[in-house]
Design brief:
The structure is a single chain. The protein has 171 residues and is mainly α. 53% of the residues lie in helices and 6% in strands. α4 (120-131) runs antiparallel to α5 (136-143), α4 (120-131) crosses α6 (147-164) and α5 packs across α6. It is elongated.
Length: 171
């Protein structure tokens, strides 16, 4: 038994996802591909059906561990098609709700993401230390913020200076 895992977006086509692509390339007639849910076979109904058809034509069975299509399958069935269709509908609903939520937040002048760690005083300290040619790690330790915060503030300042055409500021 060989296990293939992925940790990237399921929004990509199977051909663009290294885990599923490697698993499909590894499979031989008589093998069984086991997936958590039917929606792991494709990002939408059509892609899932194509992957299933290809597997079944090669003599590869599919085992689904969760969802309405739980079990071993050696050929297409209404339940597999339905599982893929429901997964596509669920994914479409999630995308719609996410877009609606972001639009609603934007109307209230809210943005997503984590709150900023650096306040104006920390920003000034970071940029002053950078003007003194301190390393980013030294700045992070001295100001008491993460290296990522220092990178972000330095990059934001450089972008702002580039946009205004002025030399980098110490403020």
């Amino acid at each position: 038994m060989k296990v293939f895992e992925e940790k990237i977006s399921g929004n990509l086509k199977v051909a663009d996802r290294p885990g599923p692509r490697a698993a499909l390339d590894y499979m031989r007639p008589g093998d069984m591909l086991t997936v958590q849910e039917a929606d792991r076979l494709g990002r939408n109904l059509l892609e899932g059906l194509i992957v299933l058809n290809d597997l079944f034509q090669q003599g590869i069975s599919v085992k689904i561990l969760h969802g309405i299509a739980v079990g071993e399958h050696t050929e297409r069935s209404l339940i597999l098609d339905l599982a893929l269709a429901l997964a596509e509908d669920r994914r479409r609903d999630i995308v719609r709700k996410t877009r609606d939520g972001l639009a609603s937040a934007a109307r209230r002048d809210r943005t997503g993401g984590r709150p900023r760690v650096g306040d104006a005083d920390k920003r000034r300290a970071i940029l002053a230390r950078r003007a003194e040619c301190q390393s980013l790690r030294e700045i992070a330790r001295g100001v008491g913020v993460s290296l990522a915060v220092v990178h972000g503030e330095v990059k934001t300042a450089a972008t702002a200076d580039a946009d205004t055409g002025e030399p980098a500021s110490n403020t």
